[in-house]
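During the first year of the project, the team set up a workflow for recording each protein of interest as an amino acid sequence followed immediately by a discrete structure-token representation. This format lets reviewers and collaborators read both layers of information side by side without switching files. As required by the reporting guidelines, we include two representative entries from the current panel. The first entry is reproduced here exactly as it appears in our internal archive.
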Amino acid sequence: MNQEFIRALDVIQEEKSIDKEELIQAIEAAITTAYKKNYGNAHNVEISIDRENGDIQVFALKEIVEVPENDHSQISLEKAREVDSNYEVGDFFRKEVRPRDFGRIAAQNAKQLIIQRIKEAERNIIYDDYLKRQDEVLTGIIKRIEKGIVYVEIGKLEAVMLPSEQTTGETYTLNQRLKVYLLMVKKTTKGPQVNVSRTHPGLVKRLFESEVPEIFDGIVDIVSISREAGSRTKVAVKANDPSIDPVGACVGQKGVRVQNIINELQGEKIDVIKWSDSVEEYLSNALSPAKVVEIIANKDEKSAVAIVDDYQLSLAIGKEGQNVRLAAKLTGWKIDIKSKIDYVNQHNESKTQNSGLTEDILLELKEELESAEALELMNSSVSEEDVLFDNISDLEN
């Protein structure tokens, strides 16, 4: 080895970000291992590479003792002091040796180790690069699909999209360009493995950030997202500027902004909800597109009853309970949906049991509730509980 070798290490350090000193120490260790393997009789050995000119020196090491028992590994203090009078018992005597074919062995091992370290460095660079981009949306190209796993080429590597991260109803084809959410980056013996997703709520969040400048600039915040990928998503937003309509900013003029996101998600429905610090208002908004008449909230238990008109009941609940399920997940509240009639009847029974009313009075109460007057009252701005109590008071009088 020579100065050209040292210059090559300088280039590697600059281009691959591999520390030169660490690399030299690793080469010394690799050559030491190779030396012991090929020249087993001299098992105590030290390899030294000159940092300036690249020359390699091999030193056989012998322990200094009073009376040697093994000539290969020990030397007497008397003989050692013939070379250097400062030696003491317990020190190691260093003698330079130059075995036959050692230069070839050293060069081979140095080359192998450098190649290995360069590969490791490149893997680490790729790992660090993608680790910084975790939780971001990246665009890739589908290169292969095997056993239900979609492999997406993103830059210098193939990302993995497992079946659990694929959206039901979406179709994936070779060479298809696709936006994916970078879910996880981990090191493996074969290099960094990147897992991506099309189902994660973070995908929706990042798409809104790219489509809505007000979100990107921090004027509008996304408070919460609940998603059933491929079907429906609810996004709660709030404005940090009172003059800004957060829902309007996200939807865009003529719905262009939100439609771009819907198109990217291949038709997934998106409800943009205005967040409110009023629990009743927030829960009511979360049940959109249904119109809520009243919210009765139990703040201690974080549970609420949402009262809707009869014709709004199925819309509030949603297909297979999806709307109320997403609203509950969005807000973190347990939500029970009741029609106005069901709610009044339920409280009717509860209050009757508590007051000990007779069956005759119950019958009269039922007839009263079914009368046109009661229905008219229920459609007014008066709450259902007030209507019920008024009817009971009338009957008692």
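The second entry, processed by the same pipeline in the following quarter, appears below.
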Amino acid sequence: MDQAITLFFNGSHSLYLDAFAWSATHIQVWIPFLLVIVYVLFKEHDFAHFFFIIGAAIFCVVISDQVASSIFKPLIARWRPTHNPQIMHLTDIVAGYRGGYFGFFSSHAANTFSIATFLSLIFRDRNVYISLFCWALLNCWTRIYLGVHYMTDLLVGALWGSMIAFLAFRVYRHYFNDATTYEYPRKVLNYIPLVFIITLCILATPWRLIY
């Protein structure tokens, strides 16, 4: 079942979608989106709040990533679809990318969902929430589209990342009493979905096909 679902979402023989997925899966593309989040936090908090939130976010990523990459992947040793002898010949490869040998569970899913969950708990805003989880889900889709993860790799990664985020937020709430009451100005929060949409539009433009 897992293999069938993966092969269903893997590839499309579309140069446009190949380019879109290949670009969207790289963190460099999302730097403006992440920087505007840092800007909002810096603008609205004192140094203690700001550095604690940034530190907690880094903690989420480091724990999510290292548990996946350093413990589970070598321990479980589950082949990525691109390396699995049973289906590797059926997997659509983009730009020659196959990833490392083992893929359970997904670091991309764990990292993006840890950040999305933690920041959603911080901002408590519907539009920001939608932007963050669309970003996380889009990253997960690119991994299965590129054939480097099974659906269960992504689901477990997303669950693990979310759990770490809830833990980090509980620690933050313990030290800062206004963690669940602080109201961010709507004008400032709107920067986050705006930059997400702009980035998405740039990604969706078929630059390779134009040039």
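For the second entry, the following points were noted during internal review. The mean pLDDT is 92. The chain has one domain: 34-204. Both points are flagged for discussion at the upcoming steering committee meeting.
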